[in-house]
């Protein structure tokens, strides 16, 4: 081996080791960014849990986080909130795997798809011996210990019944769903379809996917109105869909002849309800889900019995219902997260 070749070889190994060091360091930083930094705090904590959301900075998931952290503080446990910055199943799965490898005491996550999430949840429970509680979206056929969250089929059914009532049973409907493959979105569409299938005046004209993206939801809404000008009602199955549909409807100056029912009560959703661009929305209880999931995990650690399914409250609200919303949600989140 020539001197030049040997030098290049050594430099190559050196660069490789540097790259590995950075990867390990930043992987560690990403995974531990939300953990209390002092050793004393971690040692004083009773347990160490991780909550893996679908999308880290999504406003809906921030409400789940808020409830979970309130419960963590109350019960004296460490809670990490880590996951993909934007919805990405591969990153989501990787974060769950990393959590298990880090030997946390419990994992709280969604069961987005049976094909991908069920085997991983089973492995975390069986191979690592770490309990998993699903939240917001269930993986009912997995080894998860419990589920807390919306009955998504029922939520979709409520949306369908609300649309029938508000449109007097006559509407050409377009559906924009967050995902064609996520369990909770599938159930929300199925429930809606079952609710409206016997209403002779309700016709589902188009179904499109937003991939939990404001931009894509707006693009799909615009495309639908271009291709199907007869559409006079929209159903959005994720928190961002209804907001994006409303923007396009306003752009088209059709807010007075298009009915919109969405999901959740983000600040923009409330603003659109107040001005009448969104007519109704399905309200979930994200704070309650977060608080209840941590409470359930603590009780599980203490060898207490917990129910296998806890369905949080779901209802449809309209503009007239906004005045009582904030108080009711906070009371539900703090006091009724899970039955005693």
UniProtKB/TrEMBL annotation:
Sorted UniProt keywords: Membrane, Signal, Transmembrane, Transmembrane helix
Q: Name one GO cellular component term.
A: cell envelope
Query: Listed GO molecular functions?
Result: carbohydrate binding
Keyword Transmembrane helix annotated: yes
Q: Which residues form a coiled coil?
A: none
Could you tell me where this protein is found in the cell?
Cell envelope
Name the Pfam families for this protein: Peripla_BP_4 (PF13407)
Q: What is its main location?
A: other
What the entry lists under CDD domains is as follows: PBP1_tmGBP
The family database entries (InterPro entries) matched by this protein are listed as: Peripla_BP_I (IPR028082), SBP_2_dom (IPR025997)
Domain Periplasmic binding protein: from-to ranges = 49-304
| Residue intervals passing through the bilayer | 7-28
Query: Which protein family is it in?
Result: Belongs to the bacterial solute-binding protein 2 family.
Q: What is this protein called?
A: Sugar ABC transporter substrate-binding protein
Q: State the organism of origin.
A: Bacillus salipaludis
């Amino acid at each position: 081996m020539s001197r030049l070749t040997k030098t290049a070889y050594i430099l190559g190994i050196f660069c490789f080791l540097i790259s590995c060091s950075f990867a390990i360091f930043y992987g560690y930083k990403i995974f531990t960014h939300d953990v209390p930094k002092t050793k004393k705090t971690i040692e004083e904590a009773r347990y160490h849990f991780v909550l893996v959301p679908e999308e880290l900075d999504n406003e809906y998931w921030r409400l789940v986080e808020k409830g979970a952290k309130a419960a963590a503080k109350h019960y004296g446990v460490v809670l990490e909130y880590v996951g993909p910055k934007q919805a990405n199943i591969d990153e989501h799965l990787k974060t769950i795997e990393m959590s298990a490898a880090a030997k946390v005491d419990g994992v709280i996550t969604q069961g987005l798809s049976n094909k991908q999430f069920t085997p991983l949840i089973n492995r975390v429970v069986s191979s690592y011996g770490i309990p998993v509680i699903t939240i917001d979206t269930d993986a009912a056929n997995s080894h998860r210990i419990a589920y807390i969250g919306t009955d998504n089929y029922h939520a979709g059914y409520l949306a369908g019944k609300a649309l029938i009532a508000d449109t007097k049973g006559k509407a050409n409907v377009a559906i924009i769903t967050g995902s064609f493959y996520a369990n909770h979105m599938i159930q929300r569409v199925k429930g809606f379809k079952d609710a409206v299938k016997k209403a002779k005046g309700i016709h589902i004209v188009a179904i499109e996917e937003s991939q939990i993206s404001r931009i894509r939801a707006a693009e799909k809404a615009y495309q639908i109105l271009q291709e199907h000008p007869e559409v006079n009602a929209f159903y959005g199955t994720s928190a961002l869909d209804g907001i994006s549909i409303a923007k396009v409807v306003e752009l088209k100056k059709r807010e007075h002849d298009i009915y919109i029912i969405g999901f959740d009560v983000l600040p923009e959703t409330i603003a659109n309800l107040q001005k009448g661009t969104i007519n109704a929305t399905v309200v979930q209880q994200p704070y309650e889900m977060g608080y209840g999931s941590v409470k359930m995990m603590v009780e599980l650690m203490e060898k207490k019995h917990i129910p296998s399914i806890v369905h949080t409250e779901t209802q449809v609200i309209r503009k007239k219902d906004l005045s009582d919303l904030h108080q009711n949600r906070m009371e539900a989140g703090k006091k009724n997260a899970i039955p005693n």
